[in-house]
């Protein structure tokens, strides 16, 4: 048995590597056993079962117990694996959360064992150069030139936050360095334009940046969920002298429909009005790797900043998010000199770090796992996997359309499929509650993980819809047929049971 107590070894030491080898072998065994026992994408029983499993593990004890217990470490591995969502399961289609490649997971393990950081040269020499080279290559994906720069971040929301931070500094540059002097005394009210279908992180970022969520002005979208450029122009025209358009945020791949705002036209508008153009391509970046879908990102090279994730289309462990800026000078607002981390004479001698390109100090080497996936798949492999996921979405949409139990909202643009369960002839008490209950019932039974959203119906009222997100290229058409049959069967069962089954009112017995 591994002694993880008084004789616990550090991972980088020879004895630690032996412990690590044994623990990793055990962990892999726990993953294998959990996959066999789970029987679906998640353990049946819902929230109660998950909480009970946690309670059984702790059993009234504590994580920081008085005495070390190696056995408890291996039991934790077993409990965690057993209670986790299996993202590789074909019925795990609720989130933009991919199953990562084996190579990226191995890189993640090595990165954790070495625990490099990017805030000072001696904390990760190779890791620093790895991120710089990867950022430069990613900037070329976006069509940016040699003067571009960027940074890796903990997620798409932070990438959007940083993009809008840089936009704020650029728009308010005549007021001085806002990050130093603050927003007090501004004579204008900053405004951020984004589509009505933009990610919630845009408004959240405005709040964090001291601009206020009310500074975000939503622009109407068309029937495909794309920002209406004419409406954006009208919004800009209506601004008074005391309002300053700080940024125009375009979305490339909205969370629900996967819609792409018209980037060329928005780039024209941003250039005409001298407004920063930020593109949130957290999800839509996958189109870049597909020859048939890449035209959706035409105009990306004209953005001032771009955010995207590789823990969606990229098949790397979270977090693998990126912020790119077309001109590296715009990251100067993040410059930071700390005498104990990056003194000027060390920097001049070549011992440079990445402290001045990030909001973080200690920062892990996420570039390592991303590079491992890219090297494993190559551009051809990435494109093939994206096309496969797109094809799976189109297949699911076709099957929904051909059937009689489900109603498709629209043809999928990337890899998401939005639909509703069609009520039986006699109807149900509340179609929204019924559709929501179908999703919860599937989760509680461990059969499938399906997402939900709200889309306005013909009467303008928001209606609950269900959503499938395909990021697993190994999924088969037969497995999709089985998933759709499960959804339809549960819908019929709940409709027949009625809303008062089990005394749960409009929850349809879920």
UniProtKB/TrEMBL annotation:
Family recorded in the similarity comment: Belongs to the group II decarboxylase family.
Keywords of the record: Decarboxylase, Lyase, Pyridoxal phosphate
InterPro entries: PyrdxlP-dep_de-COase, PyrdxlP-dep_Trfase, PyrdxlP-dep_Trfase_major, PyrdxlP-dep_Trfase_small
Cofactor: pyridoxal 5'-phosphate
PANTHER family in the record: CYSTEINE SULFINIC ACID DECARBOXYLASE, GLUTAMATE DECARBOXYLASE-RELATED
Protein's name according to its UniProt entry: Pyridoxal-dependent decarboxylase
Entry keyword annotation includes Lyase: yes
